[in-house]
Design goal:
This protein has helices at residues 19-28, 35-44, 78-86, 106-112, 115-118, 171-176, 182-185, 193-198, 202-208, 213-226, 234-249, 254-265, 275-282, 288-304, 309-327, 338-358, 364-374, 379-386, 396-401; strands spanning 10-13, 90-94, 97-101, 122-128, 131-136, 149-153, 166-168. With 407 residues, the chain is an alpha+beta fold. The protein has three domains: 4-33 and 68-185, 3-Layer(aba) Sandwich (SMI1/KNR4-like), CATH 3.40.1580; 202-327, no CATH class; 338-401, no CATH class.
Length: 407
């Protein structure tokens, strides 16, 4: 049994469906088109969209809804039946994933958007802005009664099996997902928790971190610091340092950020402008995502001297390590016990604050000792503190233990 009230981070449920409403949905979903439905669809069909001078004008024919293939003998997933009993429609959200659920009105939803004309045996059940979530019923359900979940453009002209990627293997899985499905529709890659731990490419990792503005900017700064020795000009080093401060205090330094960014950009035509100085300047970008994406790219070019080949891949792999240092594994959240933070008059947060403020990352083992004395036995947290690899501002463990919010 799924407790749907715990699945979503934000929920506006509606009244749950009655057993009569559920039974009607089950009984009618796969029925052949009735004459009334055919007449209704035909009444909504537009005329010939091609002008008389177009060669397609003479060959155009209206489609025939009477010939539509309906999902007969395709049982609705039990998990979806449980959901509509909890909420017959409603708006829900998990991370960046939004759902405008259609409830028991699956057949009406399917016909209103002419889905059988363009994607027969796809049954939509929710919107996400301009995208539909659909049960892919071209094959029988699995042993649990579940179908793959695909996403497709909400306008009928964008229905295309080839451009409608699978989002999940079941209805519960798609509901628990957190990334925006538009990423899949435009060729993006979505990592599993296991792939995240070994990924050597920052691109799909940054996709997962969208919206975490402070950390994204600190990642840009960490990338610039990797090529610190290639930034001889004091002005650009000040840019990185100011960007780190701006990530923490925001608008209080915005005027100073803009002024320094303009000074740096004024050097872009000079012979001293390099990929390293570009990486430093990108740290001051107005948008943190731009700072992260562009700053990392420039820093990798500065380090490798190119944007291809073995040295390039090595530089990008080191940036992937920085993402793990700053964001941890967002696909496997780690819980912090409040008892650890209260122990011994808040000793753990005090040490974490000092390490962060002074950039004294060599003292991470001291934090480890304090955590263990406070009762922490979480292997992932302790291992990260003991890790001798590079620690930077934004370190996910420090952020979780400090007094300031991590994002």
């Amino acid at each position: 049994m799924i407790d749907w009230s715990t699945v979503f981070t934000s929920a506006k449920p509606k009244r749950g469906a009655t057993e009569a409403e559920v039974a009607e949905m089950v009984a009618t979903l796969g029925l052949p088109m009735s004459q009334a439905e055919v007449d209704y669809i035909n009444s909504r069909q537009p005329g010939n969209p091609f002008p008389p001078t177009d060669p397609h004008h003479a060959t155009w024919q209206p489609f025939d809804p009477a010939a539509w293939v309906m999902p007969a003998n395709r049982p609705i997933p039990p998990s979806y039946l449980l959901f509509v009993r909890y909420s017959n429609g409603g708006n829900f959200q998990n991370g960046d994933r939004l759902f405008q659920m259609w409830g028991t009105g699956l057949r009406n939803f399917m016909l209103t958007y002419l889905v059988p004309q363009y994607m027969p045996l796809a049954v939509p059940f929710a919107f996400n802005g301009g995208v539909m979530y659909m049960f892919d019923m071209r094959k029988r359900s699995n042993a649990e009664g579940e179908y793959p979940i695909i996403c497709a453009g909400a306008g009928c002209l964008t229905f295309d099996w080839d451009e409608s990627p699978k989002v999940a293997d079941s209805f519960p899985e798609v509901c628990r997902g957190r990334f925006t499905v538009e990423r899949l529709r435009h060729g993006g890659i979505v990592l599993t928790a296991e792939q995240w731990a070994t990924c050597r490419d920052p691109k799909p990792m940054l996709d997962e971190c969208e919206g975490r503005h402070r950390k994204l900017r600190l990642f840009a700064c960490a990338c610039a610091r990797r090529v610190w020795h290639l930034i001889p000009d004091k002005l650009f080093r000040e840019a990185v340092e100011l960007a780190e401060q701006f990530a923490d205090v925001g608008l209080r330094l915005d005027k100073k950020r803009k002024a320094l960014k303009e000074k740096c950009e004024a050097r872009s035509a000079s012979p001293t402008w390099t990929a390293a100085t570009a990486a430093a300047t990108n740290c001051l970008s107005t948008d943190a995502s731009s700072a992260a994406w562009n700053g990392a790219w420039s820093a990798a070019i500065a380090e490798a001297g190119t944007h291809e080949g073995r040295k390039w891949k090595s530089a990008r792999a080191k940036q992937a390590d920085l993402i793990r240092e700053i964001f941890g594994n967002p696909l496997v959240p780690v819980q912090i016990d409040p008892v650890w933070l209260k122990w011994n008059n808040r000793t753990v947060p005090q040490i974490a604050n000092r390490i962060y403020d002074q950039k004294s990352f060599a003292d991470m083992p001291v934090l480890t000792d304090a955590l263990e004395e406070a009762g922490c036995s979480n292997a992932e947290i302790l291992a990260h503190c003991r890790d001798e690899r590079e620690h930077v501002r934004g370190c996910w463990v420090l952020d979780r233990l400090r007094d300031e919010p991590e994002d």
